[in-house]
User: What shape does this take?
Amino acid sequence: MTSVPHDLDRRFRDAAAATGLLDVAYDLADSPIGPLLLATSSRGVCRIAFDPEPERELEALARSFGARILRSPKGVDDVRRELDEYFEGRRRDFDLTVDLRLLPAFQRSVLEELVRVPFGGVDTYGGLARKLGRPRAARAVGGALNRNPIPIVVPCHRIVGSTGGLVGYAGGLERKRALLGLEGAILPA
Amino acid sequence: MMEVVAAIPPFERFYEERKDEIFGYLVRLLGREKAEDAFQETFVRALRAYGRLRHGRHLRAWAFTIATRVAVDERRRAVPVLEPVEAGVHDERPAYAELEHLAGELPPTERAAVVLRYGYDLSYDDIATALGSSAEAARQAASSGVRRLRRRHTA
Assistant: This one.
């Protein structure tokens, strides 16, 4: 059977991203903390996944954002570039827009507050809960962070336990340690 | 009993499953060079319409339908349409491989009908959808295309 030439396939994927018709563009990327799946909706970054299983991610993204999903390197150029700069130590803050519109209101408020914790800093689950005016909601804050769809860019790795222990991370404690080490918030492992 | 609606797959999966076959089809209809533009146009049109699909059935025939329309539009621009030949009732399978290289000389709808029937084994119902005609008209387009080819082939 005739196969589509690689450059034609690439041209279509680029063109599709440029049409604005995609609900979601995604691609896989390498990083010092392992392979990542990067995805953007029409409103901004909508997913960063560790250890991605594209088939499962596609189904989940389609349920949330719509079926017009296509792997398109060009569609995630900005995310890839800013992440590269971050991992190379050339970027402290992300200029990316994030798309949190489909999340439950409480989780969205947690993540919006979280974005204020600066590069190089950390806060605690209780501290974040207090800033939200919900001082007894530390556990709920933990749950909201655990389901953060956009790790790294929305920096849930900067939230640690009240005694300074790393406590937990959906991407694994090794990655949390690596990210905080990169930011100089803790001594590198 | 509850009707099970075939889910619409993510576009990525639809594209990956269909892209090689559709590209091959467009090469057969238009030649390599024009097939590249037509390929892009086909899948951009598919993407545009994808959000309006109501179920995931018949996606293969749907992809051929869009590709056929793109190719027929392209060929109508490029080649004057030949006069139709009288329709017959034969439906025997031609030695398609021997005829395929000649199919380029056919008018666009006959060519699409011949290639879809004998190259891709689509049913006349699906070919009719692709051509925007009745199943009977699709059958006639395929058989008159084949007869035209045979005549030229043996001439």
About this structure: The beta strands of chain A are 24-29, 36-41, 44-50, 69-71, 123-124, 159-160. The interface with chain B takes residues 1-5, 8-9, 11-12, 15-16, 19, 21-23, 58-59, 61-62, 66-71 of chain A (CB under 8 Å). Chain A has a mean pLDDT of 94. Residues 129 and 135 of chain A are 5 Å apart (CA to CA).
